[in-house]
Amino acid sequence: MSSMEEKKETPGAQKPKGRERRHSCQQCDKSFTTSGTLKSHLRIHTGEKPYSCEECGTTFTTPGHLKIHQRIHTGEKPYSCEECGTTFTQSGSLKSHQRIHTGEKPYSCEECGTTFTQSGSLKSHQRIHTGEKSYSCEECGTTFTTSGALKTHQRIHTGEKPYSCEECGKTFTTSSALESHKRIHTGEKPYSCEECGKTFTQSSVLQSHHRIHTGEKPYWCEECGKTFTTSSALKTHLRVHSGEKPYWCEECGKTFTTSSALKTHLRVHSGEKPYWCEECERTFTTSGNLKTHLRVHSGENPYVCQQCDKSFTTSGTLKRHLRIHTGQKPYSCEECGTTFTQSGHLKTHQRIHTGEKPYSCEECGTTFTRSGDLKIHQRIHTGEKPYSCEECGTTFTQSSALKSHQRIHTGEKPYSCEECGTTFTTSGSLESHHRIHTGEKPYWCEECGKTFTTSSALKRHLRVHSGEKP
Known about the structure:
Layout: H1 3-7, E1 23-24, E2 31-32, H2 35-46, E3 51-52, E4 59-60, H3 63-74, E5 79-80, E6 87-88, H4 91-102, E7 107-108, E8 115-116, H5 119-130, E9 135-136, E10 143-144, H6 147-158, E11 163-164, E12 171-172, H7 175-186, E13 191-192, E14 199-200, H8 203-214, E15 219-220, E16 227-228, H9 231-242, E17 247-248, E18 255-256, H10 259-270, E19 275-276, E20 283-284, H11 287-298, E21 303-304, E22 311-312, H12 315-326, E23 331-332, E24 339-340, H13 343-354, E25 359-360, E26 367-368, H14 371-382, E27 387-388, E28 395-396, H15 399-410, E29 415-416, E30 423-424, H16 427-438, E31 443-444, E32 451-452, H17 455-466
Antiparallel strand pairs: 1-2, 3-4, 5-6, 7-8, 9-10, 11-12, 13-14, 15-16, 17-18, 19-20, 21-22, 23-24, 25-26, 27-28, 29-30, 31-32
């Protein structure tokens, strides 16, 4: 019966019995048992909030709401749980809490049957099915299913971190993040894997870990179809396609796709090498590099080539090796078009065009394009000859020089002249021989202008001018 109909009733009409709702809102048709309740309700439509907190100025539609709010300032929590002693500012909060002990979940989702202890939790859950995200961020437009999620998100823009760790002073945007952090100090890992017994500080990390056992990879890249066990791993991967590198080094300006990659890079500038080998005490910037190094001592080569059975310590080394079989050379020089199997080889090659020689000998100042060439050169000063012939004991500064020398003993001459069929032990000897056929004499004397096919022939000739006797 509407309020208009109520006014038309005869004076002798029977009055409503009990707590029948007779006071109706003209705005939304909601009805109430008392005029006072209706009056309070109307403030939702008018926006009127006549009750103000003297402490902080927050206003409310009812004195009851103000009274509950004031307990934030007084610290009063008059409602206590008989089971565990936890106290609350509102009776409703206590009632919801008690369901933890009783296991009661009176609010059920009609879509999927999931049950909840609070009606608010059910309401938030139902938005999963409806897709409703009624809370929107004014800064960036991101939408959320709950006001709490929006409030937490807004701290990204404000920089607010209201939750602080008493141990180390680190601050956090959410109380749950603080709780997880505290476990670093306590060592507590309450979440355990039933498969392998490994423990974790967070349930979400355990959930991700479970996927190792199940093989589940629920996150996939729409660009290339690659799948991932975590959303964060997918997010990082997407930067491969977008080219985004949001983390940058203040020292040198280099950018990175992940914060961990930046952290590792910073050790280049600081010189920090926190990971060390107990076998030889060599230190490393990353745990991965240490793990790879340990295989030197263990002899482990877990990555095997299916083509030739050669084994390697790292997957990257195997990947590069496979290009020998496939002939793939994915790295190309823009200057001359020469292709390479490795990016490092291309980088070294490009120094031919730029003239860059970044490796310098401290003894004599000679510069080199490669660190390996510098290392070999330094043996001139140290006298070190680490490569020894097992046949005659002759020692060499380079492994290639030893290999060429061993052909004296084996008689092997793998380099053959296409013009006359003469064979040679080294490619350099063949190259010098070719000049007999071509007439090329690239070495010339600055004293008299005479030219020669080899540098050694020029060297012998120079003694004519210097008077030096060999």
